[in-house]
Design goal:
66% of the residues lie in helices and 6% in strands. By secondary structure, the chain is mainly alpha-helical. It has two domains: 54 residues; 94 residues. Strands 1-3-2 form a three-stranded antiparallel beta sheet. The longest helix has 108 residues.
Length: 191
């Protein structure tokens, strides 16, 4: 390859011709970033016999950029490290979700127990209400019987008063006559 072409004349004997892909690999950057670097620095460029664009790169630029790892598996180890961090974060989130689910499960269990307790109390109250209704029905029935007996007792008391009034109205002689007659007739019967 010839050393002619475009760019500045500040080249050392250690400079080397590199394709954009080789520069990108050496610097651990993308091919488009390597192309922009060549243009920005004004390095000489020319196509080789295969039609691939090459740039004359100073020796200090043919090494990885500062802060970039030079080991070939650096990207893989960085990716693995990032994945491990992501897995750790996801594990923490999963554990937090499990703790939350366990808390909610315990709360749901308590709610079911409370519901069952309330249902049991409601059943007991329903049984008590049924018992009280039966007692009330018995009491109402007994009250009706008592009312009927009171009415009968009132009628009997009225009849006894009337009978006593008639007995008193007969006088002594009339009472004696009646008693000697041996009648079993009620006072209400006409003589």
């Amino acid at each position: 390859m010839q050393a002619g072409g475009n760019g500045s004349g500040e080249y050392s004997a250690d400079s080397r011709w590199m394709s954009y892909a080789e520069l990108a690999e050496a610097r651990r950057i993308t091919a488009s970033s390597a192309s922009k670097l060549v243009v920005r620095r004004g390095w000489r460029r020319q196509k080789d016999n295969h039609g691939i664009m090459r740039a004359l790169v100073p020796p200090e630029w043919s090494e990885p950029a500062p802060g970039k790892s030079f080991e070939p598996g650096a990207h893989v180890s960085q990716a693995i490290s990032a994945l491990e961090q992501a897995v750790a974060a996801m594990r923490e989130r999963a554990e937090a979700a499990e703790r939350t689910a366990e808390t909610e499960r315990a709360r749901a269990d308590r709610a079911v127990q409370d519901r069952d307790g309330e249902r049991s109390r409601a059943n007991a109250l329903r049984d008590r209400i049924d018992t009280l209704r039966a007692d009330l029905a018995e009491a109402e029935s007994a009250l009706e019987v008592a009312r009927h007996q009171i009415i009968q007792a009132g009628d009997e008391a009225k009849a006894l008063r009337q009978s006593a009034d008639r007995w008193q109205g007969l006088g002594r002689v009339g009472r004696l006559k009646w008693a000697w007659s041996g009648r079993t007739v009620q006072w209400d019967d006409p003589e």
